[in-house]
């Protein structure tokens, strides 16, 4: 699986360089939507946008199964579990120091797709608000 994942990642990067494959959004698009607090944007609703996409229609059936297994593993280990840990850390700090004020800042990847840090905190009963860029706290 590791060799397969490496090969697929390299093929994807080669396609990007050759211009035969394009990411549907730019870094500037991510920054614009993030700064505007538009986390419901289609850009942020893709769980796999943080990891290479191994699944494509040109793969033989046995390789497609491998690609799906790797994609599922990455989604679970690199996205869902990471966000759960981050959300629990925030919750624990808030509960341990209820009289203190906190400011938490996360990279955009913690807000993409399902099971985000925000989702974890909301499930715990917290209200989470976006602070736009430039707004005084």
Automatic annotation (TrEMBL):
Cofactors named for this entry: Co(2+); Mn(2+)
The UniProt record lists the keyword Metal-binding: yes
Membrane topology reported for the UniProt record: Single-pass type I membrane protein
Residues in coiled coil: none
Pfam families attached to this UniProt entry: TraB_PrgY_gumN
Signal sequence segment: none
CC terms in the record's Gene Ontology section: plasma membrane
Localization of this protein: Cell membrane; Membrane
Top-level taxonomic group: Eukaryota
Key words of the record: Cell membrane, Glycoprotein, Hydrolase, Membrane, Metal-binding, Metalloprotease, Protease, Signal, Transmembrane, Transmembrane helix, Wnt signaling pathway
Record field: transmembrane: none
GO BP: negative regulation of Wnt signaling pathway; proteolysis; Wnt signaling pathway
Class in the EC hierarchy, top level: hydrolase
Cofactor, how bound (note): Divalent metal cations. Mn(2+) or Co(2+).
Primary location group: membrane
GO molecular-function terms, A-Z: metal ion binding; metalloendopeptidase activity
EC number(s) stated in the UniProt entry for this protein: 3.4.-.-
Protein purpose: Metalloprotease that acts as a negative regulator of the Wnt signaling pathway by mediating the cleavage of the N-terminal residues of a subset of Wnt proteins. Following cleavage, Wnt proteins become oxidized and form large disulfide-bond oligomers, leading to their inactivation.
PANTHER family per UniProt: METALLOPROTEASE TIKI, METALLOPROTEASE TIKI1
Protein name: Metalloprotease TIKI
Organism: Aptenodytes forsteri
Phylogenetic lineage: Eukaryota, Metazoa, Chordata, Craniata, Vertebrata
């Amino acid at each position: 699986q590791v060799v397969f994942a490496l090969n697929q990642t390299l093929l994807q990067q080669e396609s990007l360089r050759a211009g035969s494959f394009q990411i549907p959004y730019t870094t500037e698009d991510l920054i614009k939507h993030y700064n505007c607090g538009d986390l419901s944007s289609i850009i942020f609703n893709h769980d796999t946008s943080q990891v290479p996409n191994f699944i494509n229609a040109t793969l033989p059936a046995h390789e497609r199964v491998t690609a799906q297994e790797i994609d599922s593993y990455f989604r679970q280990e690199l996205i869902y579990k990471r966000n759960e840990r981050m959300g629990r850390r925030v919750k624990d700090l808030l509960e341990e120091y209820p009289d203190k004020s906190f400011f938490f800042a996360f990279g955009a990847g913690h807000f993409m797709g399902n099971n985000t840090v925000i989702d974890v905190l909301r499930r715990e009963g917290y209200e989470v608000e976006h602070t736009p860029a430039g707004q005084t706290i």
